[in-house]
């Protein structure tokens, strides 16, 4: 699954200034509430930022979604969506996300999936973890000069060979 299947350029951001975990998750929820065309969902039923945020926060309360190397993949489930979507945030100042390796998080790929999409959800999480296990991939994300360059790199990322 190429990342372009989950992301759009409007759901990629670089956050400056000091943030805490709750604020980062709330920002991710607002980005996840954007359609692929980057417009807020306002035309009929669909997930809104509050529902998405509640789902992400609930999952984070169960256990940290930090996977190490400064990466976290907060994720949640919603009954009101039909397809998975992701948002990517790079933090100017890394924050404590409760990672097992103790490294503060600066790369966050948040994801929301349909409520009953169990196997697909697990496969998507595995693929995201595979992408972020690559030190060169993480370094390119950290070196992108702005959110446009970051989005170009993420959207051009190929499918991970080990899960394709």
3D structure, described in words:
By secondary structure, the protein is an alpha/beta fold. It is 37% helix and 21% strand. The chain has 5 helices and 6 strands, in the order E-H-H-E-E-E-E-E-H-H-H. It has helices spanning 21-32, 49-62, 118-132, 135-143, 147-156; strands spanning 12-15, 66-68, 71-72, 75-78, 85-95, 105-114. Strands 1, 2, 3, 4, 5 and 6 form a 6-stranded mixed β-sheet that branches. A hairpin with a 2-residue loop joins strand 2 (66-68) and strand 3.
Q: Care to give the gist of this entry?
A:
The chain has 164 residues and is an alpha/beta fold. It contains five helices and six strands, in the order βααβββββααα. Strands 1, 2, 3, 4, 5 and 6 form a six-stranded mixed beta sheet that branches.
The helix count comes to 5
Structural class: alpha/beta
Q: What is the 3D shape?
A: globular
Sheet of most strands = 6 strands, mixed
Give the overall average pLDDT: 84
Low-confidence stretches: 38-46, 160-164
Order of helices and strands: EHHEEEEEHHH
What's the helical proportion of residues? 25-40%
Which key phrases capture this entry?
alpha/beta, 5 helices, 21% strand, six-stranded mixed beta sheet, 164 residues, disordered C terminus, 6 strands, 37% helix
What is the secondary structure topology, with strand pairs?
Layout: E1 12-15, H1 21-32, H2 49-62, E2 66-68, E3 71-72, E4 75-78, E5 85-95, E6 105-114, H3 118-132, H4 135-143, H5 147-156
Parallel strand pairs: 1-5, 3-6, 4-6
Antiparallel strand pairs: 2-3, 5-6
Helix pairs in contact: 1-2
């Amino acid at each position: 699954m190429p990342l372009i299947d989950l992301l759009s350029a409007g759901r990629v951001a670089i956050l400056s200034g000091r943030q805490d975990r709750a604020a980062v998750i709330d920002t991710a929820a607002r980005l996840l509430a954007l359609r692929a065309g980057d417009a807020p969902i306002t035309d009929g039923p669909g997930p809104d930022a509050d529902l998405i945020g509640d789902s992400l926060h609930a999952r984070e309360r169960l256990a940290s979604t930090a996977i190490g190397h400064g990466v976290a993949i907060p994720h949640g489930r919603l009954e009101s969506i039909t397809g998975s979507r992701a948002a990517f945030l790079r933090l100017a100042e890394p924050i404590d996300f409760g990672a097992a390796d103790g490294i503060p998080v600066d790369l966050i790929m948040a994801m929301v999936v349909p409520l009953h999409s169990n196997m697909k959800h697990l496969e998507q999480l595995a693929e995201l973890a595979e992408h972020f296990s690559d030190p060169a991939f993480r370094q390119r994300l950290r070196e992108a000069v702005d959110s446009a360059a970051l989005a170009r790199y993420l959207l051009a990322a190929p499918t991970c060979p080990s899960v394709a």
